Amino acid sequence: MEARSSPPATAPSSPAARHSARKVRRVTAFVCLLEAELHFGEAHDLKAKRKLLKSISDQLRRRFGAAVAEIDHHDKWQRATLLVALVGDGAGAEARRNEIEHFLESRCPDGCHFERDTLSLGDIRD
Predict the structure, then answer these.
(1) pLDDT per residue over 48-66, tens digit each?
(2) 52 in a structural domain
(3) Domains held by the chain: number
């Protein structure tokens, strides 16, 4: 009887080799910044304003995955300026920013004003 030889066993390729063999798809990342000037007509002192701002900031973080900071009017009891930052692909981040604007308008019916900026990762690096 003739002995059959099996094909030589190949060692599994390393993770680095598997990674380099894959086609890498580059996604352009964007940072969307939303500066929101808010007016709280129902707030009658700083404590009431801070309670409203904490609730709004927590909801923005939970619902939209946004980073939020109060950047102006810390000592005014009916005004606040928030900076909201989102990171993602262009369409996704812009859509979430629009949803945030609608959310803030519903929470602050006494007045909102928005300034918007969208920067690509290339813009930030330059």
Answers:
(1) 999 999 999 999 999 999 9
(2) yes
(3) 1
